[in-house]
Amino acid sequence: MNINKILKSWKYPFILLAGIGISNVGAWVYLLALNLIVFEQTGSPLAVAGLYILIPLATIVTNFWSGSLIDRLNKRSLMVVLDLFRALCIFSLPWVLDASIWLLYMIVFLINMATSMFNPTSMSYITRLIPAEQRKRFNSLRSLMDSGAFLIGPAIAGVLFMMGDPVLAILINAGALFLSGIITLLMPNLEKQTSSIGREEWSWRLIRSDFNTVMAFSVIMCTS
């Protein structure tokens, strides 16, 4: 097969993989740095454990309403906004470390909520972007990047800890998420040409309707 044709067909998947890889490596650096900072500030393993409790809690709080937004908003734009929002929140962490542990928890909770929204949004976008015949290879490459981030992220965090304060690692992760958002802007706007005919305008009434649908389905699943 023509090399130029292969490169052209994989142009956007490779850009997307680059953004995902940068974000995943940064997430590991951020997590380890935040654990170390909280332990240094409080001296309590329980305070560190609280950071891990916030992850599933944010998922529970977010999942029952976020789907309504994800289905009806532009996926690429939402991914960019969520990346930049997380970058801004992480960038603010060094300035609240000495203020209050509860304020720190609140910001981390918001970051985890954004992450909980980002994952299904990116999955929906990837399904639209990647042709069916390329998905197996793309998923394999993404799994490789996820596994690589598990090794590279902690290694980079360790180097940064030796070079300076853990706060530096926090700031670098904020920069990584900002870069990921910029990379996402280079991706095609797949919904730009989508017709709005038949779409119901987004409103609080629509969110309530979606919420009632989700709750009814959950009740049926729990009682079946």
Set down the secondary structure blueprint:
Blueprint: H1 3-9, H2 11-42, H3 45-72, H4 75-92, H5 101-129, H6 135-163, H7 166-185, H8 204-223
InterPro entries: MFS, MFS_dom, MFS_trans_sf
Keywords: Cell membrane, Membrane, Transmembrane, Transmembrane helix, Transport
Protein name: Major facilitator superfamily (MFS) profile domain-containing protein
Instruction: Give the termini distance in whole angstroms.
Output: 51 Å
List unreliable stretches of 5+ residues: none
Share in helix: over 70%
Overall number of domains: 1
Classified by CATH, the class is: Mainly Alpha
Main location: membrane
Organism: Halalkalibacter wakoensis JCM 9140
Keywords: Cell membrane, Membrane, Transmembrane, Transmembrane helix, Transport
Membrane topology: Multi-pass membrane protein
Care to describe what's here?
The structure is a single chain. 82% of the residues lie in helices and 0% in strands. With 224 residues, it is mainly α. It has a single domain, classed as Up-down Bundle (Growth Hormone, Chain: A). Helix 3 packs across helix 8. The chain is globular, with a radius of gyration of 20 Å. The mean pLDDT is 81. InterPro entries: MFS, MFS_dom, MFS_trans_sf. Its main location: membrane.
